[in-house]
Structure formats: structure tokens, C-alpha cells
Amino acid sequence: MTLLPRTAVVIRNPRSRTAPSEAVVLREMLDNLVSDGWGVDIQTTQYAGHAIELSARAARQGVEVIVACGGDGTINE
């Protein structure tokens, strides 16, 4: 049986006061996912509502996991 690649998109808001920096995200989370065989892409929001667009695109592309990395606004989007 061939396993399909597991995919994840991390949507981060660089302006969030509560979100970790990209370096922290990469070091602590993404390295573990990649070593376990996940394909991971980090996408950074540019404006209000952008997280909605990024997550909708990822869902249409068949991404299995979407991670919101930001504050309440990012999560609510």
C-alpha cells in the first residue's frame, strides 16, 4: 500500500502579538512535521481577511491540515 503525502499549511499573521516568530514556528513545529514525512508550507497574511483566502485555497488544493498561527483575529478568519 502506498501512502499519499501528508500536507499542511501554516497560515501566520506576522502582526499578531501572540503568535510565535517564523523562526520559532520552523524550529519547534515544522522540523518535526517534515521529519515525519509531512509537506509543509508557511503562508503569511498580508491584510485583514487574507487568512480566509489562504485557507480556502489550501482546502481546494487538498491540503489535509491548516494551522492558524496568530491571535484571535487569525483564528476567527
What does this structure look like?
The chain has helices spanning 22-35, 50-60, 72-76, and strands at 6-12, 38-44, 65-69. It has 77 residues and is of the alpha/beta class. Helix 1 links the parallel strand 1 and strand 2. The longest helix has 14 residues, at 22-35.
Q: Look at the structure and give the mean pLDDT.
A: 84
> What is the H/E string?
EHEHEH
Number of helices: 3
Describe the main β-sheet briefly.
Answer: 3 strands, parallel
Helical content, roughly?
A: 25-40%
Strand order of the largest sheet: 2-1-3
Proportion of beta-strand residues: 15-25%
Summarize the structure.
The protein has 77 residues and is an alpha/beta fold. It has helices at residues 22-35, 50-60, 72-76, and strands at 6-12, 38-44, 65-69.
